[in-house]
Write a structure and sequence with these properties.
Layout: H1 8-11, E1 21-24, H2 41-56, E2 60-67, E3 70-78, E4 93-101, H3 110-124, E5 129-135, H4 139-147, E6 152-158, E7 166-173, H5 174-189, E8 200-202, E9 209-214, E10 219-225, H6 227-230, H7 235-251, E11 269-271, E12 274-280, H8 294-308, H9 330-339, H10 345-369, E13 374-376, E14 385-388, E15 391-394, E16 401-403, H11 405-416, H12 426-439, H13 448-470, H14 479-501, H15 503-511
Parallel strand pairs: 4-5
Antiparallel strand pairs: 1-2, 2-3, 3-4, 5-7, 6-7, 8-9, 9-10, 10-12, 11-12, 13-16, 14-15
Helix pairs in contact: 8-11, 8-12, 9-10, 10-13, 11-12, 11-13, 12-15, 13-14
Length: 512
Amino acid sequence: MITKLTQELLSKNPNDEKMTNIRKIKKEEFEKLKTLFPDNDEMWIKYKKMRIEQFEKEEIDVFVIEDNGNFIGEITVNYVSHELETETIPNQRVYLEAFRVDKKYQGQGLGQKLINYCIEYLIKKGYTQFTIGVEDNNEIAKHIYFKLGFNEEIDKGQGDEFDPSEYTLYLKDINKTKLQKYIEILIKKENLGILVKSTTKVTGGLSHRMYKVVTDKEIYAIKELNTGVMKRQEAYSNFAFSEKVSDIAKENGITAIRAIKLKNNDIIRKINSRYFMAFIWIEGKTLKAKEITERHCEIIGETLAKIHNIDFSKIEDNERKKINIKKFEWNKYLKLLKSKNKDYFNILEQNVKILYELNKKANEAIKCANKNLIISHADLDRKNVIWQDYKPFIIDWEASGYINPTIELIQVAWYWSGGDIENLDYNKFKIVINSYKRYSKRKIDTNIEKIIYADIYGGLEWLDYNFKRALCIENDYKKDEIELAESEIIQSIGEIKYNVSQMDKMIEILNK
């Protein structure tokens, strides 16, 4: 564990330091570290015995700062965990401890240089993660190590007989460093405060990533936008339009969470090749299907009705109202899957005929549904509602646009009653529908069968998008995005087939 440090230990400019040497020592040189050890001779003997045994087992390395043959600073690298299992991972993560600099040499940036030298050495050996333990009440040290990249709290521990203090284990992951730097640049450029806690990834959407960022001013949700999406010509205008929708919704009493207006009144900031949006963090939770009560269903039906009642006429856009109908190329994906030897080739092959039939019926239904379009959220599923008890906060308005109101009602009732996990609760489905009818100024379409087929078009479109992601058509995607798309393909095909199997019952409920 790291001993208590003064602010001068690391915060000075490294350019001011004296000419010193940093190197890894041999076991035989360990005795020279006694001048840095803070305890008595008896404790030193125990400590030295422990370290020598670890040297002999190749469990540790010790790096020192040397001045005229004297050791004036040290840090120990542990390759094997001792107090906490999370300290190390073989060939990936090491634990840094016993970090000390002689008081006479503090304030010259030597501590920072020692840590950086040690980490650079370990990176060359293939290590990418580094942990360090800091006493919970040592705010100065925590601030310093956070600036050095140890910004993720991963465990709590108790020291040994040489330093028995309680401490928090922090992680520096060089694979996250670039993202961390981008977020720091965003926070600085937009005057959002000074980071005071580690940035943590939270559950986000299926296309973008979300991070919780804590500064001395506020807690933010920072969204990193999918670079593939942002390459599209219409991406910026789509986000701008969606924020107009959420602004008007907010003005009309909907608890809409809007993006923070950044400098130049923009909502997106590009940093190098990445794109970010910032939101005020909302404490609450998104619900799993089994956590949804009938009361939640009533509130969602009412919320959707109130969104549909809003007058969005001042942002109406005839260009956006032109919804293109596609004939999806399922056979093209079959050929690509077969050539790439993908294990879900068989799933598509078994269902390709029904997908073509559904595409045909859905296209005919969409032509009918498109005669009645309104502006709405258009993606009001479970992941886009944060709850504080029974108060819903509506997030992720990026899908906002023109949609048939009955189609959206069916979609919302479907998701909030478990249809997407093939466990449709008809009572909850009915509650969403009836709650909507009670508060909505709009009538439900009379040709429900066609509307349901038009709703299925959205599922086909989502399936098509995920085939493009999984097969890297149009854009190159990262490995985790490809894996996510592949799981979505399998789930979406199952959901589409289940949707068709429940049509008669849904029609009966909607017609009442």
